[in-house]
Amino acid sequence: MQLSDIRSKIPEKLSTILSKDIQGLRPAQEKAINAGLLDGKSLLVCTPTASGKTLIAELAAAKNILEGKGKAIYIVPLKALASEKYKEFSAKYKGMFSIALSIGDLDSAEPGLAEKDFLFVTSEKLDSLIRHHAPWLRQVKTVIVDEIHLLNDPERGPTLEILITLLKQLLPKMQLLGLSATIGNPEELASWLGAELVLDDWRPVKLEEGVYLAGDLTFHTSTR
Fold it and tell me: Is residue 81 within a helix (H) or strand (E), and if so which, with residue range?
């Protein structure tokens, strides 16, 4: 699938930005589009690292913002990752819509965020914003949960599970996108999220496993 194949389904401004770097879409991106990504469907995307998961989330979030459907929130597990994504998106979409980074004070509702379109947060910070009853939260249309497999993490998992549960109650019409390179029970998780499951094993660089024995190294290509 080429970017030109979906040009009629996304805002012209978004198409112009993406066409600077992209012509063809990767297999996971094509599967996500066919599963209803551009029609507002919630998706659980389980594909290898560097297979294009971020662009899947980006397409939905930017489309919904530019079409006036609502704000987008991108949830990441680490402050450093939130800062990295914020810098990347701020440079790419400068002047198109407003972007904010919120990873600090857990005892503040940060009313200034009401003026922003796209927010990068940690799960702990978003949990704090919900507990402070930030009124602008009801304007959110797209929720992206990066590294969603951390639901199984003994430290971060409980907070993330409660957070998703609260968001499902607060935003029953949201488009939820869960992203992960590895999930042990993707069908079960997709069912709990109320999302379509997108699976693919394509990766930009083949993963190889090698066995070293008595000075001899033998490789075989892995599909994992």
Answer: helix 79-92
Q: Rounded to two decimals, what is the model's pTM?
A: 0.89
Q: Look up residue 80 and give its two tokens.
A: 């450093």
Tell me the domains of the chain and their CATH numbers. Answer: 25-222 (3.40.50.300)
Position 105 scores a pLDDT of: 66
Task: Give CA separation, 174 vs 120, 144, 171, 223, 224, in Å.
Answer: 17, 10, 5, 34, 32
Q: Which two tokens stand for residue 181?
A: 């390179």
pLDDT at 208: 74
Long-range pairs for 101-105: beta carbons < 8 A, 24 or more residues apart: 102/129, 103/79
- DSSP H or E run through 44: strand 43-46
